[in-house]
Amino acid sequence: MQTLFVPAPQAELAAIGGLPYLFLPEKQSLLAVHPDVAAVWPQLGNGVFRDPDSPILSALFFEELIAVGALVPLETADADCMVAHVQILQMTDFRIGLCYSEDDLFHELAPTYAHMAVPKEDLVTAKIPVTAWITVSRLQSACCVAVVGGDPRTGPHDALAPLLKLALTDVILDLTDNLLLHSAVVEAPVAGSRAAMLIIGDPGAGKSTLAMYMTRAGCRLCGDDLALLQWEGRIQAVPFPATLKAGSWSLLAASEATVAEGDLTRNINQTRSYLRPDGQHVRYLPLADARGAVPESLPVRWVVFLDRVSEPVDCPVATPLDVPDALSRMIAASWSGTEDLEPAEFQALAACLDSADCIELRYSNLAPALATLKTF
Prior knowledge:
Elements: E1 2-7, E2 12-16, E3 19-24, E4 29-32, H1 35-44, E5 48-49, H2 59-67, E6 71-73, E7 75-76, E8 79-80, E9 82-83, E10 85-90, E11 95-100, H3 103-109, H4 120-125, E12 130-139, E13 142-147, E14 152-155, H5 160-175, E15 179-182, E16 184-190, E17 193-200, H6 207-214, E18 220-223, E19 226-229, E20 235-237, E21 242-245, H7 246-255, H8 263-269, E22 273-275, E23 281-285, E24 297-298, E25 300-308, E26 317-320, H9 323-332, E27 334-335, H10 343-354, E28 357-363, H11 366-373
Parallel strand pairs: 11-12, 17-25, 25-28
Antiparallel strand pairs: 1-5, 1-6, 1-9, 2-3, 3-4, 7-8, 10-11, 12-13, 13-14, 15-19, 15-27, 16-17, 16-18, 19-20, 20-24, 21-23, 22-23, 26-28
Helix pairs in contact: 6-11
């Protein structure tokens, strides 16, 4: 394990008179830097270890940046983080760095977020620095997940993945100015193009299960839990892995009629089960490989509000919703960090609904629900 060094908080690089300078707000100091340092400064935002043979930065420049406070050790609770592995995730338009203190923690969790991981070659060439860091470590018999600069979350090992998702969600809520929707986002073909279906519902309504089931019909699951509503009304999914509760495992397995369709069942059965703080047993399935690309924003063509009932319903009931009802339900499923809906947020919701069919779907079984949605 090693100490990971990152740029000082809010450090800014700028050219003045053709020469590069670093401004360090915490020290209120301005530093002239070598052009070679300026050239790799964005890459240092992804974190760097003390390595005398580093191809990115010479040992001399590295130690100079540490001495002046331009590079600082990553810390939590006033202690340097000891890091075995780093994984950089592309969330929406920003990146979050995960620091694993042990090999086994990395090998357990990293595959779940592999579809969001930025390839190493992009870390070398891209100029998108990490916006926030999260540490994943073990404390005696417990595990700890902490957003750097925030309070740590601890729990038993079987709560590790849910704790990490909670930490990632905290960062997204903190960094995002857009309206966030609690919705699954499914991409579907329409008239030779592509559009998004938002699947919204209360906990237990089956958002994740239905969204995952729709992938059998040629749709693509873009995000399982959160989506950013762009100001022009398009939607950008936060590409969290699919969260499947225990009740959905057998439902999805029963839906696969042939051996050839059994990949989903095998993936579910081979995935570790975790216990969420709310007492739900869940499994996390990675999405289709996006290779760490920035998630694409899509126009919204359908908004489906789920009403899942326990008694069997042979024929699901799809009820069209008028604008006031649909808008009210979307506001109830949104988060913006403020108590009241802002005018710009209303305009974004209006633009989203302008070309969308909005329905309430009352259903109990997956196959009839999918057949009903295909009619829209």
